[in-house]
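call fold(seq) -> tokens
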Amino acid sequence: MNAVILPSRNEPTTIAAVTAAVDAAMDHSRAVIVHADSSDTPQTAEHFTATGTRAAKVSLINLKRGKGAQILAAARCPEISDAETVLIADTDTLNPDPAVYRALLNQVRSGYGLAIADYPRHWDEANLTNHLARPLIAAATGHDVSQPLAGDLALSHDVLTAVRQAAGALPEPLSGCVDGYGIDAFMLLTAIHGPVTSVRFGRPKRHAGSFPHLSAIYHEAVPVLLHMTAARNPALAPPRGGAAPYRVADRALPPGRLKSMLNTLENLCPFSPSGYDEHLWPLPAADAWRAVASGTPAADAARRLWPHYTQRVRSWLTSSQYATARQRAQELAAAHARLYTALTSPGTP
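ret:
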């Protein structure tokens, strides 16, 4: 049996299309779609319930707010306890493609413990992924996962069971992080000791932008990233193929968009003219990783890293507006290599 988990909050305009797409991907009556909702109004759940499907449907409403809390609540449903493969899909996706979900499911059916979508991302998006999550996971685990925080992934029964059990054993404040946006990194890093694969797609996914939630995403995801990667010895050899390839889709930003993004960063963490450019990024990330490896609580290390990270994003947005797609990809790959060197070279400052 296959199952789907659809976490949602206030997505009445997209939930029906996503529900229909995942149902088409499974194409089987012996399947279950679990909608895990924490919306402010009943419309999202009502649209899910009204969508016709071959699969059985389970609607969980009034859940604790937080993407992770919703996914974990669905994972505990008895209706999916016997599912061999579980798909988790973002419910804010515009024009969802059943072929994407089917490809993820097929990879797990073929023996992978976890299959995660690899979409190209627009140059102004995926800031946490490109500047921190991807290079950190690659350096610390040896697995270069192009989109480690992708919201579309499939898991085997054993991996989902391991995620559920590991989440239940976490202390605060990490458990609170995993109840939120930290769930994506947590699922991947729980599974990464086994067979994990990325499924490459040619076009960027159209969905709601994450930049307005940058602070919440950072402070919930980064402690999980630091805690779980610092428990491992860094990889002994660089990924095969040399420099990591980054796919950075080009686009022109609407008038005022860049200014708005920079204003958001300024409100989140005012720019300081000194103190955050002394070490070339991502060396401050390496310092945070070492601090956690030496016993500093991950949440504390993430808070100290936050000004350096926001400055990195500020600099990236400012300089990359004039760069070509190739130049942007080269800069991301160079920073990726610097973090690997910083974590794996003894005595690197």
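The chain has a mean pLDDT of 92.
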